[in-house]
Amino acid sequence: MIEFDVEKIHIPLKQHVGGPCQAIVNVGDHVKRGQLVAVPAGLGANIHASLSGVVEEITEMDIVVKLDKEQTDDYVRLEKTDDYLQKIKDAGIVGVGGAGFPTGIKFSTQIPGGYLIANAAECEPILGHNVKFMEEQPEVLVRGMKYIMELTGAKEGYIAIKTKYRKALLALGKACKDEPNISIKILPNMYPAGDERVIVRETLGVILQPGQLPLEANAIISNVETIKHVVNAIEEDKPLIDKDLTVGGRVQNPSIFLDVPIGLPISVFIERAGGYINPHGEIVRGGPFTGRPAKEDEPINKTTGGLLVAMPYPQEKEKVGILICECGAQEERLRQIADGMGAEVVSVQMCKRMKPDKNGRLRCELPGICPGQAEKVLKMKKDGAKAVIAGTCQD
Ligand code: SF4
After folding, report:
1. For every one of its 395 residues, what pLDDT tens digit does the chain have, with 9 covering 90 and above?
2. How many CB atoms lie within 10 A of CB 27?
3. Ligand 1 in contact with 364 (CB < 6 A)?
4. Which CA distances in Å does 362 have to 211, 217, 326, 358?
5. How open is the CA angle 45-333-241, to the nearest 5 degrees?
6. In DSSP terms, which residues pair with 388 in a beta bridge?
7. Best of 190, 196, 394 to mutate for ligand 1, by most ligand atoms within 8 A of CB?
8. Does an H or E element contain 103, and which?
9. How far apart are CA 146 and CA 116, in angstroms?
10. Is 132 helix (H, G, I), strand (E, B) or coil?
């Protein structure tokens, strides 16, 4: 287990799509690593203690556990059952790539004759934990895909990956050489290659409209780390208590950590990565395109993939325009960045490919096939902008 020097952890009660879970333990209870501590009140997924200790406090947002001095990698096993879907639900697995949708619900959908696609795009720059997992344990991904294909009735399994991950590609090629129904599909080296509609377009040749799900193409897409947790649940009776993580940016030793306990504070991982390079700016939880600012004492959760330390904001006290892309930073985040720079936002534009879907949400018509943005930049200039802060992924 990773070394850490903290006395307590905060286990968040909301680590998924849906409302917070309800705690089923009480203050003063001793909980063991792997023990079920909270259950969904509606849409959601079970939550287990990731380390052992005594429950010190329960709030609306989290369970605070004062840690035992001795911790081990061992954990309380899930109940035995041959029902794999039940095992996935019991384990509290959600889409750990960021979506947080309960995996037990996703894989209860039947797609006879359809496609299971493992999202191996490792889409956000700097992040590398999915690639490391595939390099080191490709056979785990293949086994997981076979379980999920059995559950959903999918006839073909595709691993969608970029050619730049050469070592992982070679490892995966070996791992699926005797699997007639599992093969590798190449994604373009661009952001947002991991967008579900891009993956469907590049692997199946089907163009999904904004708001349409992969199911319209008889496909289910799952992030590779999520599939790893499915294997852990089915083969090892292990609940989702550990997480893979990339720590990068302005730290001394950018690092990838596999299987670290959920609930540990961000500061532990900055320290394990050698500490900050000074001067440094904010910590970003997630990737450079879609990440959010975070604080050192916040816990990592089921959907935390990256902890990136930024450079200090340049102080450009210009009038700026912000340019929004559906797959990149949104208006709120771009305004935060402008604020950090001390810049005044005088114009807000969005990529012309963003159109409202049937629910009125603005979606990109053709993710990754990006137009020039000259027209938008000229509009900003007319509005008085002297510089542009762009959340777009191309151009
Ligand atoms: S087309 Fe526009 S909205 Fe879509 S991914 Fe490209 S820049 Fe973003």
Report:
1. 778 889 999 999 999 988 999 999 999 999 999 999 999 999 999 999 999 999 999 999 999 999 999 999 999 999 999 999 999 999 999 999 988 999 999 999 999 999 999 999 998 999 999 999 999 999 999 999 999 999 999 999 999 999 999 999 999 999 999 999 999 999 998 888 889 999 999 999 999 988 889 999 999 999 999 999 999 999 999 999 999 999 999 999 999 999 999 999 999 999 999 999 999 999 999 998 889 999 999 999 999 999 999 999 988 788 999 999 888 888 999 999 999 999 999 999 999 888 887 777 888 888 888 888 899 999 999 999 999 998 876 54
2. 12
3. yes
4. 9, 22, 7, 9
5. 25
6. 321
7. 394
8. helix 103-106
9. 9
10. helix
192 preceded by a cis bond (ω within 30 of 0): yes
Residue whose CA is at the smallest distance from ligand 1 atom 8: 325
Distance 364 CA to ligand 1 centre (A): 6
* Residue that the structure tokens 């899930």 belong to: 78
- The span from the CA of 183 to the CA of 206, in Å, is 18
Alpha carbon distance 161, 176 (integer Å): 14
The structure tokens listed for 87 are: 């095992």
Ligand 1 near 353 CB (within 6 A): yes
> What is the token pair recorded at 315?
């102080």
Cβ(159)–Cβ(223) under 8 Å? no
The two tokens of residue 373 are: 């943005």
Q: Is the CB of 393 under 6 A from ligand 1?
A: yes
Residue 371 Cα: closest atom of ligand 1: 1
- How many whole angstroms from 268 Cα to the centroid of ligand 1? 36
Q: Name the residue with the closest Cα to ligand 1, atom 5.
A: 367
Distant-in-sequence, close-in-space partners of 389: CB < 8 Å, separation ≥ 6: 320, 321, 322, 323, 334, 337, 338, 341, 343
Ligand 1 center–CA 386 separation, angstroms? 23
